[in-house]
Specification:
6-stranded mixed beta sheet, ABC_transporter-like_CS, about 45% helix, 8-stranded mixed beta sheet, Rossmann fold, Vitamin B12 import ATP-binding protein BtuD, about 800 residues, transmembrane, rod-shaped
Length: about 800
């Protein structure tokens, strides 16, 4: 069954080499009780360790049932110890934090035996050695003889072929020793039992065969076999410890050190607590900001302007360039100026708001919109009268802008949804105007003066404003032709006649409105607002007016002034026009004759139907995303020049605030993470201490067939448990700390429930704690796996 052929083994310490076994050959029967005797240092324990696979020979061969072990790998030796060998040690080598049943089950656990079967076999083995009434006890509750019986039960439980006993009675009294020897002799009827002892009397009394060792050699053998019966079907069953078993082992070990584990977990959780509090505050402030933004900015429009300009900072003179080129030095004392082209620092993009694009915008889902506003480059001719004299109204001074209208098919009114009606009624017809005042009911003196009101008065009654009328005069009445040129039909009599003419369109201020109190911001500034349909009606009439037709035919000369159009182009023209219309002003200038180009003049005369700006008001933030997505679809597959660039002010503000908040959060987390690094080092030290404390357990597990990776798994499981406890403790404490933090913030800022830890953040921090803790214990776990099982079993 078992053969040792010319086995040699030596140990080298520095320059000294000790020969433990020298060309030893032994054959063993399938079932016999063999006692190995010899003085200390004779090689008998080394021989036992080689037979058990705890140590490997240098030369020769160990043959098991006809199978050579010369080419065994570590995993093969692990499986051999688990399948074929049972160890009985002098010092018992029981795992103290496990019950005796768990100790007996351990070898079967590594073999993959089911829980029900291994428990039954463990109980049967304990009954066989006379410990039926003690199966729920731990090793520390037993006497020395009882603990040795547990060790014998453990050796028998997995039904091995070979039982190896190393001084099994060395720590027992005479009576107990005899009981143990009788038990071992009984076992030898069915198995090969090899016992190492210093006691020749025990060997002669109980052993079937005595082998004498001296100086690493066999000097006598009382009953060598004539021939060996081999089992040619010998196969090894690989061992494997499940992660659950590793967790169970480590959990029971940790439970014996509750206070140390608790303090370790708490110390390790400090970093988690800090990060959790930072994240909870960040999350809470983000929600507060989002809540404010959703109220303040949710109805901010997505704006599409005819022209868009942005400053290209990459072309700005750098600090290094200033050192090389003295003319770019800031605050220079040089007595000279340096011409430069400002357009070189500006990227201009012109949005072509074609009829096709306007039709595309009409296709936006009305459910996404609260209103649509158009700003047009049109100078409507408006007169006011005091009952006797009519005078032109400077629409630029009125802040004359169009108010948003609900999309077709959508019920309600934008003004009714977001503004309070202070007096009068909301516009019902295209000729109805509305006055917008600020939250203090204030109105600019220039606007009041343009309306013909007493702008120097301390206050003006709503009644003096609501119902106030104006007259819109079309171009054919407002301008007259003289010698091929046009001029304003502008003396007092003519203006009064125009005002009272049947062709004049009556405009009336129907009501006064103010933004709602719970709306932090208003999308319309104080002034007079009109319906876009009024502008469309004026543009339609203006296109067919004589002055517009004459100007369209005249390429070089302004038909109002007789002057040649300016050739200014590029940056100056573009920026000038952009600024004229950026505030929603309805005209390029209050005087069409001051326009710098033919196109500007036609626009000022009301002949351009294409809006200069379109504002799309979303219902809420989600609707805004839908609008933006729809606008982006237009740009797909188009060149940069053909794209339509829009301005999403709400997104700009939210991105800026989110970016600042994220930056602050990351900086604070970086500081808090320092404690995590300290925790990682601490866990490494604690795990290393645990390895030193459990060295004998490591040896026992290896003797039972545990692989190196199983030992690593045991200590990884321990750090996993500590990491989980640390993470859960940190999150629990952080949740509790949010209560006083919120109370303090409420008293300081009047903000409620600011600190809110996101459950996903909490889960992520627990995972982070487990990961970092396992990382900290990784090196000590690897160190444990590399321990020599023979050396580990000898440790105390």
């Amino acid at each position: 069954m078992l053969q040792l052929k010319n086995i040699s083994k030596s140990y080298t310490t520095g320059s000294f080499t000790q020969i433990a076994l020298n060309d030893v050959s032994l054959d063993f029967r399938k079932n016999e009780f063999v006692a190995i005797l010899g003085p200390s240092g004779s090689g008998k324990t080394t021989c036992l360790n080689l037979i058990g696979g705890l140590d490997q020979y240098d030369n020769g061969d160990l043959i098991i049932n006809g199978t050579s072990t010369k080419h065994f790998k570590d995993s093969d030796w692990d499986a051999y110890r688990n399948n074929s060998v049972g160890f009985i040690f002098q010092s018992y080598n029981l795992i103290s934090h496990l019950s005796i049943t768990d100790n007996v089950e351990m070898g079967m656990t590594l073999s993959g035996v089911s829980a029900e079967v291994k428990h039954r076999k463990a109980v049967e083995a304990l009954e066989k050695v006379g410990l039926k009434e003690h199966i729920h006890k731990k090793p520390g509750q037993l006497s020395g003889g009882q603990m040795q019986r547990v060790a014998i039960a453990r050796a028998l439980a997995n039904d091995p072929d070979i039982i190896l006993a190393d001084e099994p009675t060395g720590a027992l009294d005479t009576v107990t020793s005899e009981q143990i020897m009788e038990l071992i002799k009984e076992i030898a009827k069915d198995k090969l039992v090899v016992m190492v002892t210093h006691n020749p009397e025990l060997a002669e009394t109980y052993a079937d065969r005595i082998v004498q060792f001296r100086d690493g050699k066999v000097i006598s053998d009382s009953n060598p076999p004539d021939e060996i019966q081999e089992n040619t079907n010998y196969q090894l069953k690989k061992t494997a410890m499940s992660y659950f078993t590793a967790l169970k082992l480590s959990g029971k070990n940790i439970s014996t050190k509750k206070w140390r584990t608790a303090l370790t977990a708490f110390a390790s959780s400090i970093g988690i607590i800090g990060i959790a509090l930072i994240l909870s505050l960040s999350n809470g402030f983000d929600k507060q900001i989002s809540s404010y933004e959703s109220g303040a900015l949710s109805n901010f429009p997505v704006t599409i302007n005819e022209s868009a300009a942005s400053i290209d900072l990459s072309s700005r003179p750098s600090e290094d360039a200033g050192k090389k080129d003295k003319k770019w030095k800031e605050f220079t004392s040089a007595g000279e100026i340096y011409p430069y082209d400002p357009s070189a620092n500006t990227v201009m993009h012109t949005n072509v708001l074609s009829e096709e694009y306007l039709k595309y915008l009409d296709g936006i889902d009305p459910a996404l919109l609260d209103g649509v506003s158009y700003s047009r480059k049109v100078n409507m001719n408006i007169l006011r009268s005091d009952g006797e004299t009519a005078v032109p109204v400077d629409t630029a001074s009125l802040n004359f802008t169009s108010y948003p209208d609900k999309p077709a098919g959508v019920e309600g009114s934008y003004l009714a949804d977001y503004y309070d009606l202070l007096a009068g009624s909301l516009p019902e017809k295209s000729t109805d105007l509305v006055m917008v005042v600020d939250e203090y009911n204030r109105m600019s003196q220039s606007i009041l003066e343009a309306l013909g009101l007493d702008y120097k008065a301390a206050n003006i009654s709503f009644d003096d404003i609501v119902g106030r009328e104006f007259k819109l005069i079309y171009n054919d009445d407002y301008y007259i032709e003289s010698d091929g040129m046009f001029k304003l039909n502008g003396n007092a009599a003519n203006l009064s006649a125009m005002y009272n003419s049947g062709n004049a369109v009556t405009l009336k201020i129907s009501g006064i409105i103010r933004k709602q109190q719970d709306s932090p911001m208003s999308t319309m500034s104080a002034g007079i607002a009109y319906s876009d349909s009024l502008a469309e009606e004026f543009i339609t009439n203006a296109k067919n007016s004589s002055i517009v037709k004459a100007q369209e035919q005249q390429e070089q000369v302004n038909v109002l002034t007789g002057k040649v159009f300016s050739q200014v182009s590029g940056m100056g023209s573009g920026m000038g026009m952009g600024m004229s219309f950026s505030m929603g002003n309805s005209s390029a200038s209050s005087d069409p004759g001051s326009s710098v180009s033919k196109e500007d003049t036609l626009a000022a005369l009301g002949a351009v139907a294409t809006p200069s700006s379109i504002s799309l008001y979303p219902k809420d933030f989600e609707a805004k995303e839908g609008i933006v997505k729809y606008l982006d679809q237009w740009n797909e597959g188009r060149s940069d020049k053909e794209m339509i660039v829009y301005t999403d002010l709400a997104e700009m503000v939210t991105s800026l605030s989110s970016g600042i908040m994220d930056g602050i959060t990351m900086v604070l987390i970086a500081f808090a993470s320092i404690s995590l690094v300290v925790s990682l080092i601490m866990i490494g030290i604690i795990t290393y201490i645990s390895v030193l404390e459990r060295t004998k357990e490591i040896g026992v597990l290896r003797a039972l067939g545990a692989r190196k990776k199983d030992i690593t798994r045991v200590f990884n499981a321990e750090t996993c448990i500590i990491g989980s406890l640390s993470g859960l403790l940190g999150i629990g404490i952080a949740y509790l700390l949010t209560i006083p933090v919120n109370i303090i913030l409420k008293s300081i800022t009047d903000l409620s429930n600011v600190a809110q830890l996101n459950p996903l953040h909490a889960f992520g921090l627990v995972v982070l704690s487990v990961g970092l803790t396992m990382l900290g214990g990784f090196i000590p776990a690897k160190f444990a796996a590399k321990k020599d099982p023979v050396v580990a079993l000898r440790s105390e």
